[in-house]
Structures are given as structure tokens and as C-alpha cells.
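Q: what sequence does this backbone want?
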């Protein structure tokens, strides 16, 4: 038998066909997770494995982009750790020892082989929430949305809230407890997609949606705010958008007292919603809801009165950083949360070995906007990572890239006190938590 790599962009049905016929796929680089992870996550959702390319081995990044590539590949679990390809230039005077020094650092590639091999045997924690969108329809009609799922803003919102949302086709995500229809540019759906979402909520699902999602139906071009009206919400009085509008959380079922104001590219001309609770409002005015929710059938639906949720990394820059709200919304929806960090500029992910009680926590300082910028806005390079659902027991903790032994910790210590990490810009840490008793 041999592995066939099918490079290219395929819809989910083709991915499944290729998977079932012994194929995997490959990419030309996975070093920027906010840009390159959505497609890898979509592949992971259907088990279509992927080989990555660390394209920047000769570019002199810190210390290569190998670390970033491994972090991105692991966002969907270990299945995408199929392999890492790199390019080597021919050294002058045939001095091949130069390959083992910066900027190529082939010694680090050798060092990462056992790390990647170990992570490959791990899987993502059970995911109970997913992004939802119909990017293909909107891309074909207007070019306004990515056909692959969440864009930069949505990935930043997920990362800075320290949650993991699945990105996959309807067949992969329809039975998830919660769907987030928060991908910008998803204003037009096929009528069957609108009907499918309504039925999902009626049957007990929880939907978080931007007000403009499903605003238009392909089959009903004269109707407006189609999905919103199906759920019984009253549209805004006009559709003028106010960028970086400040919204204030209302303490209650959705937000706890520690929640802070957040920013929306909003429809600010909202009206009170009959039969719905207000979870946030504009300008602290209860008559101008920024977020409304209601029960619907056996489920519930929450509307964010905006066409985009502004993540902290994209805040207006006036010193009032936007609060990452997706974690609060996931908690409200009953989604299990496995890992957290007190620094919203750290991106964290948790995997578990398939055959034993060993966990892998990956932490990275890769929150960047624009994604190609060489520095982030964060002046705090340290944070504490906590493991909220780690079972009781005793765990030997090792940071695999540095080889540092952090000693034995109890499950309670890791849940409550966590692991303190200090990361330079673009740095990644991989912690193995191996249960020893």
C-alpha cells in the first residue's frame, strides 16, 4: 500500500471520498494558524489527514516556523500531524553542517520528529460546539465570504476566548450541542439551509447568530431578514452599521459579573424584542439591545445585533480592549470547557492520547493582526494555563520542546493553580501531562 497526497481545495464530499480511498492531503504552509487553520480543522472534522509544509525554514523566523506549523496542525487533533516537509538550500562549499545552524536549524527538525510522532497519537477533546456557515453559497454569489469557514476575525474570537469550535460540513456538526453562525459575510443562504437551522433549534440545539446571517434566501429574493424573522425577532429599524460600537453585558444567564464591555460592528438601531431577554445593550441603554435571546421549540437562539464580533486583537485601539465573549456564550450553551488561560494573547489547545491518560497542552503566542505583522499588541508575555476538566490523579508534567521537567502535579493543582508559562513572540510550548497514579 502507498499513501497518495491529493493537494488542492475540495468540498467536504470530495474530501470524504478521497479519505475513503486511502488519500491524504497536503498544504504549502501552516505557520499562520488564524489564516491557515480553518481548512485544516475542516479536514480534521471528516478525518481527511494532512501533511504540512514548514515553508519558512530559510527565512530566519524565530527560530524557524516549525513550532507554529506543529501548533496549527494540532488544532484538529493529532491526525493532521501526518508529516512536515521543508526545503533546504545547497550550502556553500558543500558544508552541510550549515544546515544544522540558524536559519535552517535542521537540528530542530530532528528534535521535533519524536514530538510530532507523539502528538499524532492524540486526539482533540470531545467538541460540543461548532462554527456554522454556508461559505460556498456566499462566495459564489458575492465573493464576500471564505468557502472554507471562519475568517481571521472569527479565528481570533475563538482563540482569544480559549475555546475550541469545530469547523466542518453540516454532516459533521449538525449534532453538536451548540452552533455559532458568527462568520462574517454569511448574509445569503439557500432556503433549505435556513429551514435546517430552524429545525436544529426546534429539536433542542442552541444557536448563536449574527443578525445578518441568513438575511436573504436564494429562493425568496424579495424577502429580507429571513432567518431573523423565522425565529420571531424584529429587525433593526435600519441596517446602518456602526463599527467598533461598544456593547455592555447584562449580568444574568449569559454573562457573569466579571464580564466586560465588548465591541461589535453593529446594527445600533435595534428595538426591544418581545418575548426575548436582553443579554447586552448599547450605551448601557436597555431599550437598545446588543444581544437578545429566547427559547425556541426545545432549544434556544441568541442574536448578536451586528455583522461582526470584534476580537480583542482587532479593537479600535483607544485603550479599551474588546472582551472575548465567545467563552461566555459557550458556557451559557452548556458546552464543556477543558482549558483556560488568564492571558487572552495566548492561544491554548488540549489533546488527549487515544490509549491512555496522557494529555497534551499546546500554548502559543500567535495572536496577530494583521497576521503577517512581526509583533503583537501584547506587552504581557506570561500567563497561567488551567485545566478545568482534568481528572483527579497525579501527573508528571514535561515541556517537550525545551525538555524541561516541571515535576509531578495533582489533578486538583492543575485545575486550580495551573501551569505558568512565559512565551516570546511566535513561541510555542508543548506540555505533556502524563498520569502516573
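A:
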Amino acid at each position: 500500500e502507498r499513501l497518495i497526497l491529493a493537494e488542492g481545495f475540495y468540498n467536504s464530499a470530495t474530501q470524504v471520498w478521497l479519505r475513503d480511498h486511502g488519500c491524504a492531503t497536503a498544504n504549502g504552509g501552516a505557520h499562520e494558524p488564524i489564516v491557515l487553520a480553518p481548512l485544516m480543522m475542516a479536514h480534521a472534522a471528516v478525518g481527511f489527514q494532512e501533511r504540512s509544509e514548514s515553508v519558512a525554514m530559510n527565512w530566519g523566523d524565530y527560530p524557524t516556523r516549525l513550532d507554529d506549523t506543529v501548533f496549527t496542525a494540532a488544532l484538529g487533533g493529532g491526525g493532521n500531524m501526518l508529516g512536515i516537509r521543508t526545503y533546504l538550500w545547497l550550502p556553500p562549499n558543500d558544508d552541510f553542517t550549515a544546515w544544522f545552524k540558524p536559519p535552517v536549524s535542521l537540528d530542530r527538525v530532528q528534535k521535533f520528529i519524536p514530538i510530532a510522532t507523539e502528538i499524532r497519537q492524540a486526539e482533540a477533546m470531545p467538541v460540543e460546539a461548532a462554527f456554522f456557515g454556508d461559505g460556498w453559497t456566499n462566495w459564489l454569489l458575492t465573493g464576500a465570504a471564505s468557502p472554507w469557514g471562519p475568517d481571521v476575525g472569527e479565528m481570533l474570537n475563538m482563540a482569544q476566548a480559549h475555546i475550541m469550535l469545530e469547523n466542518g460540513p453540516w454532516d459533521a456538526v449538525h449534532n453538536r450541542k451548540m452552533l455559532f453562525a458568527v462568520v462574517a459575510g454569511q448574509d445569503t443562504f439557500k432556503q433549505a439551509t435556513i429551514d435546517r437551522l430552524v429545525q436544529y433549534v426546534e429539536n433542542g440545539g442552541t444557536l448563536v447568530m449574527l443578525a445578518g446571517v441568513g438575511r436573504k434566501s436564494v429562493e425568496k429574493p424579495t424577502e429580507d431578514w429571513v432567518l431573523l424573522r423565522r425565529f420571531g425577532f424584529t429587525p433593526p429599524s435600519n441596517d446602518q452599521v456602526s463599527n467598533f460600537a461598544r456593547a455592555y453585558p447584562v449580568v444574568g444567564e449569559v454573562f457573569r459579573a466579571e464580564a466586560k464591555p465588548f465591541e461589535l460592528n453593529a446594527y445600533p438601531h435595534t428595538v426591544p424584542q418581545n418575548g426575548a431577554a436582553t443579554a447586552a445593550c448599547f450605551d448601557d441603554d436597555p431599550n437598545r439591545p446588543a444581544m437578545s435571546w429566547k427559547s425556541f421549540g426545545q432549544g434556544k437562539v441568541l442574536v448578536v445585533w451586528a455583522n461582526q464580533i470584534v476580537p480583542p486583537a482587532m479593537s479600535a485601539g483607544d485603550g479599551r480592549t474588546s472582551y472575548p465573549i465567545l467563552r461566555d456564550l459557550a458556557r451559557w450553551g452548556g458546552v464543556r470547557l477543558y482549558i483556560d488561560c488568564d492571558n487572552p494573547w495566548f492561544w491554548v489547545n488540549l489533546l488527549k492520547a487515544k490509549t491512555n491518560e496522557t494529555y497534551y497542552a499546546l500554548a502559543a503566542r500567535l495572536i496577530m493582526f494583521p497576521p503577517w505583522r512581526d509583533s503583537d499588541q501584547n506587552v504581557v508575555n506570561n500567563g497561567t494555563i488551567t485545566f478545568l476538566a482534568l481528572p483527579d490523579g497525579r501527573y508528571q508534567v514535561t515541556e517537550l520542546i525545551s525538555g524541561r521537567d516541571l515535576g509531578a502535579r495533582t489533578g486538583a493543582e492543575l485545575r486550580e493553580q495551573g501551569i505558568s508559562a512565559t512565551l516570546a513572540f511566535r513561541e510555542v510550548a508543548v506540555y505533556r501531562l502524563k498520569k502516573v497514579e
